[in-house]
Amino acid sequence: MLAVSGPGLLLPLLALAAVLAVSGVAKARDRHTAADGFRALGLPDWTVRLPGPEALAALEICLATALLTSSGGLLEVAAVLACGLCAAYLVIVLRAVRTGAAVRCRCFGRFLDHEVSGWSVTRNVCLLGCAALSWYAASTGAAVPSLVAAADARDWTGLAGAGLVLLLVVSLLAPGARRPTTADATPPDTPSGSRQAIPYAVLIDPEGGRILLREWASRGRRLLIYVSPACAPCQRTLALTPGWAQQLAPTVSVYVVQRLDGAERAAPGTLADPHGHLAEALELPATPAAVLLGTDGRLDGGPVSGEMRVSSFVADLLPGLPES
Fold first, then answer.
1. How are the residues of the chain apportioned to helix, strand and coil, as percentages rounded to the nearest 5?
2. How many folded domains does the chain comprise?
3. In a domain, 195, yes or no
4. Comparing C-alpha atoms, which of 256, 303, 305 is closest to residue 110?
5. Which of 144, 150, 181, 191 counts the highest number of beta carbons within 10 A?
6. What is the pLDDT of residues 219-268, one digit of tens each?
7. pTM to 2 decimals?
8. Together in a domain, 215 and 306
9. CA–CA gap between residue 135 and residue 160 (Å, rounded)
10. Span between the terminal Cα atoms of the chain, in Å
């Protein structure tokens, strides 16, 4: 029969409670980011129209509290609910990965914002494992208060070591450890007084024609609005672009750009960035993003990323519209 020691039961309970608490607080503090995550992951619209993010945040916080403070039947109920919740998260993430679309996960609000990938699946499998072990712990009569009271120095040393190893693994493997991904992140600033050169990149128009970025920009200033298809902030930004185009014309022309892979064609009125080469050259950390191309081979502004930053960037262009 499986026998697990006190520290072995305590670690999954603490880890699961910590994750649920962070996730719940992040959703409660930033309801719009959580709602955007719901849409991007393909959840029904009613989950956003109803107080879905708020209700889920409250549930996660309540479960985290129960896992840390309760015992007996109440702890077992909390562990069962946590198992169901983690299983649902895993199914949603698996479905998003199978679509192959660039979907951003905002399960932790702005605290951890990254594209759904195999790492996301691994994380949710581990989370479900913690929930299952927590259920097992509750079924044996264990509880965090009693386990903490019974733990000695050796137990705490083992838990601290396991925690440090876990943090090390996460810091090395987690998305964002190598590149910023939050929606409001911005690329490193260029030295004061200098302007970044326009990359040698190619865009594809809706008819399949190639656009040489530098040569194209030399004929007139171009404002590029870079978006992703499964991105709620991008959709809100797209709704504003026709108005921006009218306000900035004829000094600046406005174009929507989207990454496309393979043999796909850009949507009507949209330019394609093959395999995201332009986004990589500009070091765009997230979408939506904006950049203003000058006629002299250099950028006249940006790049900036994040819904609010893009709107502010365009608003700053409107009063003066300085010459390139």
1. 55, 15, 30
2. 2
3. no
4. 305
5. 144
6. 888 888 888 776 777 788 888 888 888 888 888 888 888 887 655 566 66
7. 0.54
8. yes
9. 23
10. 76
